[in-house]
Inverse folding.
């Protein structure tokens, strides 16, 4: 028996053990989370992918635009060399593809030393897969098939919380989701043509022409990301509620690990990444692209990241992994890479707008309380 004073809402919210004892929705949420992970794992295993685990405690190099947590190891071998928790498994997984593993995936945790809000927690779970000889259209097909499989698998469960939310998500089962190309869509929404050179100065002027405030970081990548967050992600999502929407062919400045090509729009030519992001209701769920497999081009992109980091003091700029560049010289076949946030998928299916509700012991603040 639980004393009545312990069932008050304020007590339940700060005590996850008590929450499970008195709140069926919390138990259902963990069941749904477990089945989502099982469904994703089964989807890839049936397609003959090999599940692997890669290092969490690493040296230099991040594989994503994010600031890592750093620490030191008490071991004379490392001579106080700083270590860090991985922000993504990407570079390790691609090294395995170079080593001959053509279809691999990993479900695991990563860590980013960033702010905490309703959709971000410093510790989070993702699924990433990499497949040799795979193009961007094929990555889109795999994504659509996975959403359909997830919806069908979850629809067989007898979980009241899920049964309440699934009818609103029926579009996930239909496939052939809406697709928008970055530059033409941005220009259509803003009514203004992008500058022919996407450098910091011209993008600052573009912001001012649109009467938009500037982000704190004025690197070209940060400015382009700001435009996407204002004009693209919320607007294209609002036209397709509860539906995955693909935004593709982002400018190369946003994707230092992606393969790029030049595309002309009217008389202007831009270097764009063979990449897509998948949004649902304005939130990003998936990031995928054809991988840069030219070691010289990858080194050039890493050096550009270092310049941006130095010029604009961008703590979240990708940290180069030069061992990865050396590994590329052995030969990375044309490869498609894909990453999905598991926690956000759980939020979608349980109908929650806060990430702490789908984590077993809540967000970082809740972990300290528990």
């Amino acid at each position: 028996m639980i004393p009545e004073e312990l069932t008050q809402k304020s007590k339940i919210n700060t005590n996850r053990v008590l929450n499970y004892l008195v709140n069926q929705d919390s138990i259902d949420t963990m069941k749904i989370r477990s089945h989502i992970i099982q469904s994703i794992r089964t989807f890839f295993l049936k397609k003959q992918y090999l599940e692997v685990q890669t290092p969490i405690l690493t040296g230099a190099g991040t594989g994503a635009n994010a600031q890592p947590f750093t620490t030191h190891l008490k071991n004379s071998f490392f001579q106080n060399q700083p270590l860090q928790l991985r922000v993504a498994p990407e570079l390790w997984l691609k090294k395995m593809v170079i080593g001959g593993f053509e279809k691999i995936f990993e479900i695991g945790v990563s860590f980013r030393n960033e702010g905490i809000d309703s959709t971000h927690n410093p510790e989070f779970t993702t699924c990433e897969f990499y497949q040799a000889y795979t193009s961007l259209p094929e990555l889109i097909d795999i994504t659509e098939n996975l959403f359909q499989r997830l919806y069908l698998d979850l629809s067989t469960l007898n979980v009241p919380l899920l049964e309440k939310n699934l009818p609103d998500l029926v579009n996930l089962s239909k496939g052939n989701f809406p697709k928008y190309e970055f530059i033409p869509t941005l220009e259509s929404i803003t009514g203004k043509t992008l500058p022919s050179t996407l450098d910091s100065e011209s993008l600052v002027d573009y912001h001012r022409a649109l009467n938009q405030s500037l982000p704190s970081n004025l690197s070209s990548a940060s400015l382009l990301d700001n435009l996407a967050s204002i004009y693209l992600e919320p607007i294209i999502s609002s036209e397709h509620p509860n539906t995955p929407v693909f935004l593709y062919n982002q400018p190369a400045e946003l994707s230092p690990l992606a393969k790029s090509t030049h595309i002309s729009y009217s008389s202007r030519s831009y270097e764009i990444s063979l990449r897509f992001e998948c949004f649902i209701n304005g939130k990003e769920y998936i990031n995928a692209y054809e991988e840069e497999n030219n070691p010289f081009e990858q080194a050039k992109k890493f050096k550009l990241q270092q310049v941006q980091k130095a010029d604009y003091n961008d703590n979240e700029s990708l940290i180069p992994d030069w061992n990865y560049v050396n590994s590329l010289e052995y030969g990375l076949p044309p490869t498609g890479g894909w990453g999905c946030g598991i926690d956000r998928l759980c939020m979608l299916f349980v109908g929650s707008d806060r990430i702490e509700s789908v984590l077993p012991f809540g967000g970082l603040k809740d972990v300290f309380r528990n």
